[in-house]
Amino acid sequence: MAAFVSPVAEPASWAYATVDGVSIPDGLRYSGYRVRGVRATRTPDGDVQLPATGVVRKVVDADGRAFVELQPTPFPIRRVALGLPGGLPTFYLVFDDQTGLTFGDGEADLGGAALRTASAVTILAVRQDRMLVDPAVFAAHLTAAISQGGGDASQWQPFADAITSATATGDAVPVLLYDHAGQPRTAGNVFVVLGPSDAESVHLATLAPQDAGDLQRTVARMNGTDPATMPIATLFGDGRTSFRLRPLADAGDIQLVRIEDAAAQASEITLTPQLRSVAFTNLAGWFAPQFVTLGTGEDLTRFTRGNRFTPFHNGAPFIDDLFERLRDAQRPDGGFHLATGYQLFPQTKFTQRKVGDDRLETMTLAEATALLGSDNIALTLEQAVKLIGDAGGKTRFLNAQFYQFEDPREPTVDELALASLVVMGILWLDGLGVQFARTDFTGVIFLLLIAISASIYTQCILDSNGLPLERNGLAVDVLKVLPGALSIFDPYPVRVEDNMPPPALGEFPFDDIFKVTRHFGLFHQKLSIVKVGADHFGYCGGMDLNPNRLDDVDHMAREPYHDVHARIEGDAVHDLALTFDQRWRRIEADEPPAFDVPPRDGALTPGADIVQVARTYFAPAPGGEDRQLFFAPNGDRTAGDTMLSALREAREYIYLEDQYCVPPRIYRETLVAKVRDREIRQLILSIVGISGDILFGDRVREAFFDDLRTADAGAGIVRIGYPRRRFTSTDNAVRASSGKMLLAEALPAGGGTQACIVLTPDVRIPAVPFWVSVDGELIYAYDETSTTNLPLGAKAFLCERGDATAIAAGGSSPSGAFPRAHQAGAAVTAIDLTGIYVHAKMMIVDDVFLGIGSANLDNRGFFYDGECHCFTIPQSLRLSPTNPAFQMRRKIWAEMVDLPPDMIAPLLTDPLAAGRLFDRSPFAGNRYTPIDARPPHLMLSYTTGDGAIADLIQLLGFTVQANHISALYTTVVDPHSRLEPNPEP
């Protein structure tokens, strides 16, 4: 059976003409697109047939035209499908009426099966990447893919030859211009450059909507109107066999790619009658200019070409890759620079993981040495540093410092408690976990006891500027004594006075509670550089060397964790290395870095990716010159500017993963406007289900989500959710019978919140909150409650039932388990419905732009903390076979919707069609869960935004008012320095 056949029988007997702007009606896969195709006519009528085996649907538009959509089945033609640029096509056969179309929607038939006879049919094809290429170009690509895949092209080739001969030959052969998303360019200016470079003639062409992206039409139109301005009538007339296309822009900013052969060029590209379709984009619209311009040779570049950008999803692949490079760095000219943005674990076993390994195991250097394998890949970071040092190499570590106290005043017990629970809460709760606390008095007392336990260290902490509490104390102490190594703390100098607007320091909470603590910022960058001889490998993203990053795509860790990172090779590594070097020289003047910043080398082209390294640094307040960073004296907002630029460039979809997702105003307004104005077709947010570590920020996040839903207005553009792994048994580390219980009292039918479930025996009951299955009904117990006359050994819990449990997506809103009556003595089993913690800070736009780094989508990430982000666009745009944005999206989405690797190509190549898979029920295997389908979080109180932390402040003796919570949030949790957001260009 042939993979593809001609859509018309006897293709040479038909006449063909190009048609533009055929609008796909609602109800079909590519509805709303205006597609270029061919209209085939014949007298007498001829047979129209299915061009491939697949599923058919029919829609009749307002003009009475019948659109027959054919979705080819990929599995019988897998080799051909994998070789097709842009993925498997969807065909549309458009008839002037629906006469003779007798099939039912959803029926399948074989390629070559007759549909009907007709005197005319319009033939359209849309690739999975949604680039609306010329029909002759598509037909040629399909012919090549059939042959390369080992198929029989004889039943397709005559049709391809016929439409090429009729529509794509001669001096006026179409020359089609596209944007980065593959849509025809209908506005703007380009230069048509004729002749050799030393004797060229340049003609300005102004595109117009009526030209439908065809530069030949533009030239003919302008020549007919004003021959003096456009002296040529056709691009290939007068014996010309080529010309150069030079779009208007600053030199070097334009990136072009020919669609026929995926050849990429900067600034201009040569086109011929055979290579005549080109997509291009202005990189200045994507990559914001570097905010810092010192002019001293210490500035980062706006972007560099010729890099290789390799993204990693989840920690295990990244850590394996890093430790292999560290193995290669075991040489006299080897080196390693690492800046950690949270916590570094030097003695955790990171590598040689296999069945039976304990991923959380720590080991001494002696223990790691005894287990070192023949591959010489270290097991721990400490061992890797030791091996590099023993070989004569050097290593340097910059460790985030959390506590900076003001001398000579002593911190009080209250201040230490709040410094731990509020000041550092956005990170502290992440590491400790938040499910141990409730909003009742017992839970608050528990929090208080944990916090006040720090009081025994009060004087010691003051004397040592907080070092006994520092999370990275072990990393400093263990690594600094190794040969060739230096490991130091790097305090971030920002103070509350640098906020915008500045806080009233004489009011709560500062002079009431934070008498000594005035520093709430952090160097949050997570970057590293490995030097192997003359080669340098840079790493940047959201991951520290932390054991919780060792979770993989299956997410079966005790605390499931999702994060992303990237490896960079090429000139962009210079900017990563310079970022580390500047910080090192600021804090350590006596000892040099392990190696010099590698020079930018124009000949260094390990890959074909355009990369920008972008940063965030605070802007000090007037009078704060002593806090200026010499490498960013007025701050740096490039990371946020580039992300905003990319949002504005989006045409089809935006995919965001973020730990906090409380965007500053201008980002929030941009995203809402993109949805409201229908400038994009899809927005997907993957976030943390319970935002436990952005204290008091839930109301801000919920208001943003409400704005998106209002802007969407039921259009189905917006999806907001969090990943949750499949049901598993609870952790039975304490006793084998944990989670095996009985109903102590009958449970009536009915749903909603504030229901009460009574369980026994108490020794088997998990800590709240927890899920249970009672005779197959899932119920969420979220808080213990006191009731009278409880049976001996029983406990009562407030719970959610029915739709309130929201365990699955149902239609337009989540739906829960069906509530029913249960008798006393019914079996009860605790169920683990753990959310996968999304720590990633990532954005993908239109399968062409990818951003990975440490900057969260909040004020801290874009205007306050020290952050580093890396952004990339492939030089061949969406046509690159190694496109990092495309490859990363498919891997991440396969993880989110839980698809096996073999299903990725056929189901996830088309980003908009694949987005619908996020709506699947978890019972069908989906991990992605609507954000509404999440349990309440009582520690932070989802509904009010105050919760147990506010109760704790009250317990410490301070009256909490609404403006106090607001002050804590805007000056401690999510502060904003004096950097102004990038305005609308």
Write the layout of secondary structure elements.
Layout: E1 15-23, E2 34-49, E3 54-60, E4 66-72, H1 78-82, E5 90-95, E6 108-109, E7 114-126, H2 135-148, H3 157-167, E8 176-178, E9 189-194, E10 201-206, H4 215-225, E11 243-247, E12 254-258, E13 264-266, E14 269-271, E15 277-282, E16 304-313, H5 315-328, E17 335-340, H6 365-371, H7 381-390, E18 394-400, H8 413-423, H9 425-432, H10 441-452, H11 458-463, H12 473-479, E19 485-490, E20 527-532, E21 535-541, E22 561-562, E23 564-569, H13 572-587, E24 609-616, H14 638-649, E25 653-658, H15 665-676, E26 682-687, H16 698-712, E27 718-723, E28 728-729, E29 740-743, E30 752-760, E31 770-774, E32 777-785, E33 795-801, E34 808-810, E35 813-815, E36 827-832, E37 837-838, E38 842-845, E39 849-853, H17 859-864, E40 867-874, H18 884-897, H19 904-908, H20 911-915, E41 928-930, H21 947-955, H22 962-973
Parallel strand pairs: 8-15, 17-18, 18-19, 22-37, 25-26, 26-27
Antiparallel strand pairs: 1-2, 2-7, 3-4, 3-6, 4-5, 5-7, 9-10, 9-11, 11-14, 12-13, 12-15, 16-23, 16-24, 17-20, 20-21, 21-23, 24-40, 25-38, 27-41, 28-36, 29-30, 29-36, 30-33, 31-32, 31-36, 32-33, 34-35, 38-39, 39-40
Helix pairs in contact: 2-3, 8-9, 8-10, 10-21, 15-16
